[in-house]
Write a structure and sequence with these properties.
Length: about 280
Amino acid sequence: MSPAIIILSVFFILPILFAVFLSFTKAELLGDVSFTFKGIDNFTRMFDDERVMIALKNTAQYVIIVVPLQTFLALILASALNAKIKFKNVFRVLFFLPTVTSSAVLTLMFVWILNSQGLLNEFLQWVGLPTYNWLGDPAVALKGIMGMNIWSTAPTFMVVYLAALQDVPDSLYEAAEMDGATWLQKFWRITVPMLRPATTFVVIMGIVGTFQLFDQAYIFSNGSGGPNNSTLTVVLLVYQYAFKNLEMGYASALTLMLASVIMVATLLQRLVFKEEKLD
């Protein structure tokens, strides 16, 4: 077990402990390395930092919208592809293509589509409709990232649901058909309850992933979180403080705060989707 323990310690446990240490200091990591103990100053500073509140609001909005929609879309796609339709293997491959494509590449594609001279505005102009500055409007920029991630992430969870659907006994659907159940009743009364463990996994992974949104927001805004901080997320803010302002102590405190938020959100989700005990 020694190799696994060493790797786990070097790449997981030690970085966490070092981040905890940095969060209580003002660290100088370039040139003459030094650490000045600051107590809880880095944590109390968050309450006076307006950008932290903005980043938390944007991240929470992103999580609340993206997680339910991508979970619902993944379930619908999996149910459709599990049915007896022609060319379903072809559809599975086509739906899964966004997942195997680099996130940076997908983001650049959407930037090219949504910019002022992009394909979307070219199409609107071609059909005689007014164009729009999609990436420059604070009310729309984050929505563009949401749409892209729902489209690209749902196929991953679709595969999870497809695997879970293989364990649902056909006899349940046959019995329901004999009782005169409609397809909607079968879906709601059989499919959804039987996929409860898969849904728990999908929602947990969705929550953890969406709270860590960084690369798409970075590429959309060129690292600024704009326009008007509308795409500023907590992880992007951590990046700015750590690697632009070189405030490693404050950035580490923000990281621990985000980890705490993710842990609380995950625990709450576990309470909502807790397993029913059989008598």
